[in-house]
Q: What sequence folds into this?
């Protein structure tokens, strides 16, 4: 790390900073410029860096402390140069095949979920999505059917030979959700819910960490690091749009996060164009953009009757639309050297 | 609510929307313009509006649905025209007196916390802040001393006659934290952690809901609504900065949120200039700005030796600085018609 | 437009608003709800709406005024359902063929520009980009060679049979730049420089309006409306990234703006992945994403020796990289039903 | 500046970077860490730094280049430790006295401007604001009366003994506007209109540079640097809100920019709470906050009949409200050690 001393820092203050660094056991390399002194600290391990940086930044004689290495280790591509492939009970996420995850936003009824699941399966999806616990901005919105929904999802998925991805919001429910789900989804609002991240780090069920709508890529990878550090190596990421000033779309999808994550990390990255845009009419174009940019998976909301949906109908595709859309996608997948 | 039909919506589609609205039991008032038809729905209660709006937005013949009333009820000033004063075991938050909450970012040791608390008490603070469970972006940063820290906080506060505010992150810890704390703080990262919000809605201990760094004022008030709806009327808000493109400050403090909340809601609003700026040198100016804008309380990080702090030393004031700063603040408080 | 009266607005105030609207010659349709009165105004033409909305919003008895129709006319797809194809002296922008615009960020020397142009031409580009007047955040950065650069661009483009796109920043230079350029580029910083927009509305040379880094899609289309209203029908748009909190990329590319613009407007839309990402390593992935999402053109920085570039070398592709990248792009273009 | 080499950079690449730096005439201080090499370059003057940093960032063997010193010189407090006081024909901006600038958003008629000006003068304002050239998002909005408005402003201001501040948008109008105005306002949309900045750098009339709604403080100070570098030392800044995701207010006022600018620069800083909030009901609270935070001036929209205003009536105070508001402000000004 690089410590930039404040203008006018005294020789004594510079000495004091150097002493702190050597006391921690690291090498000190000062550069005395005309207007500022800069001190390089060599050999500081990842696990201590955040703490030491904060500690030096607190000194009034220090202007800023700059970290050179990435603030995550297990999530970094340097740690694991090959891209990770997660085995979701036989269905891979990562690698050449693009994982197609689809289903209703929320499990409302058995019939609706089954109808959606059948259409998704017919289109090629092998992972069924569906909300049992729903985060809603308004306390007056539908909050999900909980364990009943989990049972339906499991039952329907098993009958079709699909895997289940569903969100877990409460650390107390992790064990319960693990009984029914094949992938645990950490929603955007919970990306920095550390107790939840620690809890899903204790199990072996694969975890999808959705990007916080306010989160820099670096913070998102640190959220993944929480899970990895807990001992669960099966982590995938999901770009679902960030919050900006634009109001035409519900969020602004950061498609450049796909190649960015690919160069920074070995973890698979999935795209959610339904939440990302909030508009049915934009989902197909963004699905195609995501595949072209290198996404490892797609998470898409499909509803047999969006106009009767309890949640997010405006961004759900109809079952009639979804199948042909995937057919139109296949040639694109192929020229990208992937399979579906 | 106002339903804007898409251009080219057919007479049949317009009828269908009108029928849905009347089936829900509400009045229908269509306006047929040259290019668009707009349908007013009258009598839709708050508790159903979010659901019905989503349901109509899902129709492809609908361009947008506009809510006219605020999407919260118990948090609104219309519901409770008088400003709320929360009684924190004899210390008011809300009303004429500005509540001064101060202490270390994190409880590190008994001695450090005591030294900070004594200085804060001497300066006039009657509520002691201090982190026992710390949310940290990096899993390698210090995460807090947990229950040991809670005990120290309680013990020190009692010895000085202070109240305790501290963060609760995990719904499983709400009962535990209630045993030691007088105000439960919901941190910025957990503003939409609904299981946690529901849990603190079940107790009577006052709750401070910090603004999510990505949250619109309307969403923040809906988070408060979760707690109020759960049955806990003792909710205060805290503005602590939002995330923008500016990098000089850690967050961008939205001072205009103070008068905005005052016109929209009856809940007391506290300002956190330490987290809001992330820079010690800006804390005093922002404290003054907050008081001038009408804040009901201040939450300030004070550390006896910021350069030895384990967390956020760069934004902590020294104990030596804090007392005189509060003295300088008093004339300002007075001309604003408040007391400290 | 829809006028939402404030809670507690008196009968007299409601009458007054209704009278204003009928005095302007429009129809009035009030809806009296339990808590709010809402007044629909029918027949307000685009050209007057902005003014009348502002005027009603100024009344203290009015809570908000909601525009139903888009605040632009000539730029809207409703006005011109077919997508526009602009003829740049025989090279189309819009339509089936994707327009490839490439060249150096800035014209530095004749040799550098020629080397870049030849490589771009060989790869299939028929429109040469290059900066003669450069907007630079720092007054100490290189500001461009001005007319000398324009001459070089023209000369090199003519020798290869290419068209020229270059930025014009100063309304006083529009005539001069028109002498050399085939497309006038309005840079991101000048998207709301109305005197410049009016000036380029007076000529017939095609104009590319880059999105302001702070601009909503609706505001961007209003900027295009300024040019169209001036009488120049040859307007194309360019998405080049917006400003968000993310710092890994220079801007956040809003790929969803491509299909969004396609549904709102008939104007062709070009993508600039070089400015959009600010990182050479992300340009290819974003180029592919843009084509998959439906972009009508690509604007890419190519430099023979980026390490010797005076401006933006970090985001420029090398001439060696560019040709093979376009070859890899061709199958993708084809499966999207386009040509290059 | 600090050059961080990419992981795996070869000895040869490191040598090449060192050679470039020494060829420019600067000192080289390499630090060889376990995972990265970092090279400090000492003695690089401000005027060359931007160029050299860009040039090194373009190398694929370089991960990033970090500037240590601020990218502006004449605007920095280091260059000019005392706060600057600008003499606007006898009315100071900067220093102990807070400059009160008020008047209508736009000059509509002589009578309206006079009525507003008289009320502002009576309340203590000595600088009259009023728009002659109005930047409007919509080409259908009122664009200002141009020179006729300038004449009215001058005439009314002279009759009352006031100074005039008004916006100049077009570099061709700088000379014209200088004939009537005492302060040239650069609007938020033109903060990076460099031809305009250069033009107002050629005159001696004081210039107010409003912050771009997308601009970091550092970029804003570089915009001021353009004017200062041109030879005009009379530059003041104006915080008028930045663009964020919040929609309740028109912009988010960054009050922390006031103390931040004070520590970084010697230039006076004015606050515009009318544009900043877009809501009349928030103007007084934000005015008070700005004074408490240390603003050197206030720029406030006052209209005799906001409901008849052609522009921005929703954020204009009435003349009846303005006088008493300033009276209520005076005790606050006094306890802040300022005068009005």
A:
């Amino acid at each position: 790390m690089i410590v930039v001393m404040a203008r006018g820092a005294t020789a004594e203050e510079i000495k004091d900073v150097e002493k702190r660094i050597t006391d921690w056991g690291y090498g000190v390399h000062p550069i005395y410029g005309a207007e500022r002194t800069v001190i390089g600290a060599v050999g500081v391990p990842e696990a201590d860096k955040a703490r030491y940086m904060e500690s030096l930044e607190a000194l009034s004689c220090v202007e800023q402390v700059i970290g050179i290495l990435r603030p995550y280790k297990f999530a970094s591509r340097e740690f694991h140069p090959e891209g990770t492939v997660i085995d979701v009970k036989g269905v891979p996420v990562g690698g050449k095949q693009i994982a197609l995850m689809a289903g209703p936003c929320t499990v409302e009824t058995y019939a609706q979920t089954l109808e959606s699941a059948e259409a998704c399966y017919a289109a090629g999806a092998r992972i069924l999505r569906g909300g049992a616990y729903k985060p809603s901005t308004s306390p007056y919105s539908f909050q999900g059917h909980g364990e009943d929904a989990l049972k339906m999802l499991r039952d329907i998925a098993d009958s079709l030979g699909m895997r289940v991805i569903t969100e877990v919001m409460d650390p107390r429910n992790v064990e319960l959700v693990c009984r029914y789900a094949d992938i645990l989804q950490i929603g955007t609002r919970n990306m920095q819910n550390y107790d939840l991240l620690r809890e899903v780090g204790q199990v072996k069920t694969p975890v999808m960490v959705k990007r916080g709508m306010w989160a820099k890529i670096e913070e998102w990878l640190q959220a993944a690091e929480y899970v990895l550090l807990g001992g669960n190596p099966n982590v995938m990421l999901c770009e679902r749009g960030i919050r900006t000033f634009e109001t035409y779309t519900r969020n602004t999808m950061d498609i450049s996060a796909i190649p960015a994550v690919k160069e920074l990390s070995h973890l698979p990255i999935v795209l959610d164009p339904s939440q990302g845009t909030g508009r049915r009419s934009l989902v197909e174009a963004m699905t195609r953009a995501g595949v072209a940019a290198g996404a490892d998976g797609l998470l898409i909301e499909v509803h047999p009757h969006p106009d009767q949906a309890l949640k997010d109908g405006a961004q759900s595709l109809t079952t009639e639309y979804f199948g042909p859309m995937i057919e139109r996608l296949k040639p694109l997948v192929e020229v990208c050297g992937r399979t579906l």
Q: What stands out?
A: Chain A touches chain C at residues 214, 216-218, 242, 244-249, 252-256, 258-260, 262-263, 276-277, 281-282, 285-286, 288-294, 331-332, 334-336 (CB under 8 Å).
